[in-house]
Amino acid sequence: MCRWNAYFGQPLAIEELLFKTKHSLIDQSLHSTRGVETTNGDGFGIGWYPADGGAPRRYRSLNPMWSDQNLQDLAAEIRSPLFLAHIRATTGTPVQQVNSHPFKHGKWLFVHNGVITDFHTTRRELLLAVDPTLFEGIHGSTDSETLFYLALTFGLETDPLGAVERAVGFVEQVGHAHGIEHPIQMTLGISDGERLYAIRYSSLGQSRTLYVSCDAAAVRALYPDNARFQHLTDEDRIVVSEPLNEDLPGVWQEVPEATALIIQPGADEQVPFSPVAASLAHAGPSH
Amino acid sequence: MCRWNAYFGQPLAIEELLFKTKHSLIDQSLHSTRGVETTNGDGFGIGWYPADGGAPRRYRSLNPMWSDQNLQDLAAEIRSPLFLAHIRATTGTPVQQVNSHPFKHGKWLFVHNGVITDFHTTRRELLLAVDPTLFEGIHGSTDSETLFYLALTFGLETDPLGAVERAVGFVEQVGHAHGIEHPIQMTLGISDGERLYAIRYSSLGQSRTLYVSCDAAAVRALYPDNARFQHLTDEDRIVVSEPLNEDLPGVWQEVPEATALIIQPGADEQVPFSPVAASLAHAGPSH
Amino acid sequence: MCRWNAYFGQPLAIEELLFKTKHSLIDQSLHSTRGVETTNGDGFGIGWYPADGGAPRRYRSLNPMWSDQNLQDLAAEIRSPLFLAHIRATTGTPVQQVNSHPFKHGKWLFVHNGVITDFHTTRRELLLAVDPTLFEGIHGSTDSETLFYLALTFGLETDPLGAVERAVGFVEQVGHAHGIEHPIQMTLGISDGERLYAIRYSSLGQSRTLYVSCDAAAVRALYPDNARFQHLTDEDRIVVSEPLNEDLPGVWQEVPEATALIIQPGADEQVPFSPVAASLAHAGPSH
Amino acid sequence: MCRWNAYFGQPLAIEELLFKTKHSLIDQSLHSTRGVETTNGDGFGIGWYPADGGAPRRYRSLNPMWSDQNLQDLAAEIRSPLFLAHIRATTGTPVQQVNSHPFKHGKWLFVHNGVITDFHTTRRELLLAVDPTLFEGIHGSTDSETLFYLALTFGLETDPLGAVERAVGFVEQVGHAHGIEHPIQMTLGISDGERLYAIRYSSLGQSRTLYVSCDAAAVRALYPDNARFQHLTDEDRIVVSEPLNEDLPGVWQEVPEATALIIQPGADEQVPFSPVAASLAHAGPSH
């Protein structure tokens, strides 16, 4: 059910990640090895922050990533210090551009791998909880977009991790009220253009895989002959649903269960992720 | 903002209406003469009732009708006693299959030409009014689909015209509460497979055009040499946004303002259409 | 590199083959078990002969078969005594409707699973050999469509199997002249609406898989409790790249290497398939 | 039958031409005022030379330009000193990405507005004349792509205008041999990344419209208060099928009949365009 990549660091042409790695997203779109589905062919999307600043931009497509005729030229053209790419395997909602990730609001981008369990039974209640002033921005029909708008409703723009903890807590609370045992399964990639948040969590405690590239200095030391790695700076980080190569030990580190990474200028942070019960007062009819 | 056709009568290949008339929908998709927009190229859809009974079926496309490569073969294949075809000119929501008409619920099909004015300001409130048990069926983001689900909420399946009058009354009430002077503009085509309802109405009192073919006997008498017309039976009726030909006086009759037609086996009916204020008790948070 | 199915027999709704079998084409589009590629998501097509006679019709799509939003309704609507369905995994040429099988010429339909090896080096020479009066019908860029037009050039309409033997012989001859060791790999499904030709051949002698359903009487006797099988008549035949179920021994019979089946009213035939060297003189006035 | 724009000058975001002008290409896609067809909704394409050099890149789409959901972000992202944009109104060949302009070969881009008359009767003969070593690059089925490959065959890369004169002469010669009175109608935009060639010609002597922006100094003097114009340098040039605004006299200059412009660093040139009879000997070894 979807795979994604994110990059944070010195400006990089998107093709470096999408086309010039062994087990790239394009390869994963046909042959995912660690996902729930081996094929992720239900559209894709890329969101990036322009190298010269400003609001994030997107390219989203109905096509499988492997057969998109524009992607190669666009991925060569676009250089960005921060981007997210996502390939979709639908869990039931239609294949259409507005259902392709990343979702966008102002300077925020959002990608999701996973599912809100039995979303058809909780969709209306979750949508109702979205802040009415934000509601107009919802264009698709996915659980992922609803989760994004809940996070915005619960304060994503001022307290990103807290807001996601409240949004996920709310989803679990609504799910449990409907007798759903494990209401959510997710890895998330979220950014405001300055930080990249990568979160791994599931109600079940067995979340989709998520990896982050190791410290650049360590990687360079491990592979002194790899020219690509010698260009890595200590700020460069890649977050991936599946490692971009399997044969280079020491390059990828698994993100632990129920954990959030904050990738940012200077030292990154790793903190526990704990959903919290959120009051309905944050949203609903009174707005 | 869209054009549509509907047919009720002896089983007919869809191509007869779509391809074998002078000013067919395909022609209107490029050169609408009486619509607000001359181009209706934002996708299209056809819904039909199978000749041997059962639930209605649909073919919907992202493409302009004039360039769809499958339509000619499908329109030759499909014979139906009751079908609706719709070409879209979006008023802002994305071009995608789930936004193409007809919308479907059980045995009901629904097409709309027009607009709910300033829908972005009233969308959430209108969606909230949809019966929670129906909500799951909403897959797109258009004003038209919302209007259909409001009609279902207000009783379309048991009292079709009454339900539409209540739904439109509700839309006007919500619109007025938001300071919108003329909240709705519409022609509607609605069917349950047994009757075809064609409604023309707008808050402004200047509605989109709508025409119905005249009594077959009259048409045959007017054009004794027209072979196609000699096959018409008294039950066959065509409803159109724009006449399929302009050069045959007496064939098309304009549907009056604020009027509903009921096309059915036996005598058809024509009744006034008057929106009525509808209580929120039909819907909303208590469900 | 593609999978296909064909049906010959009493009129059948296409959904019976596409949706109501265990390992249907739709399932194979995601999880082919015997093909070269496990994913066949580069568009698809269906061609059928109308139940009331006349030229064949087609529905072709850019989408993967698994996510096409129209297919279910169309497959329920269309009943046909003879149809072919094909899912594509491109070997390099673009994903576009004109590259989706079946190809059509007059009353003929044609599907291909396999490849003309190194087609980019022989394409021009093969196209040049196509009869100039047929050339205009070529709309796409695939090896498969070129093979179809070569078969037409070499007499498909009057001597179907002989023409394909000459066309394949010509492809091998041109390939060998370019130093290509094994110029062709194929299973073909071809029909004129009266007979269904199924051919399995490759220059290498290790062809793509192909199966045909066994004699209906035998199948009914094997599975007396299977209601679906009790409706089979002795004329009904299904040809498939992969069995539609793996758990029913005795239902599917492999088509031998270098063999052509002729499925027709009355007794079917099975004959050897031997490409023959073909003179360029077949290929139009200018040569 | 299509409209196009081209830009040559200081690096410019593509959105400046596509979105920030009054009668932009997007507007022309719905309401062309000087074209043969008012609607140009059969796909579109943009080709550009990267600001930092290298081969040209493209974005091509099946959608009408007015409804493409990615174009706005891409047009804001891409800055280029030389680009061509084209909207298509098909004259019969399918709407598909490979039929969208610009066509590309190495460092060359090519757009065409017009038609090779009765192309279906001359297509094979024209294709045969394409150099066999170039043939592999033909992916679509349009007259325009064939014209481009003929120009390449006749020496576009070493003698651009001469090659086009020979290619057009050849098309006229083949056309006349088939009894076609006026074999070609065209405006062309061609570039190698260093120069932009704009050609207006038709066998009939009544060619599609083509305009070029006037000398920047003159424009600045005419409109001292227009901020956008004050940024124009003397090197900046825009070539358009239709003026981007109708209300600014002195800004656009019509390209005369049978004329080629060479827009380049330093003084531009304007020369007569005269097709010349071309020997088939140009067209590769086998002829």
UniProtKB/TrEMBL annotation, chains A, B, C, D:
UniProt domain Glutamine amidotransferase type-2: residue ranges: 2-266
CDD domains for this protein: YafJ (cd01908)
InterPro entries: EgtC-like, Gamma-glu_amide_hydrolase, GATase_2_dom, Ntn_hydrolases_N
The keyword Chloroplast belongs to this UniProt entry's keyword annotation: no
Keyword field contains Metal-binding: no
Keywords noted in UniProt: Glutamine amidotransferase
Bilayer-spanning residue ranges: none
Protein name as catalogued: Class II glutamine amidotransferase
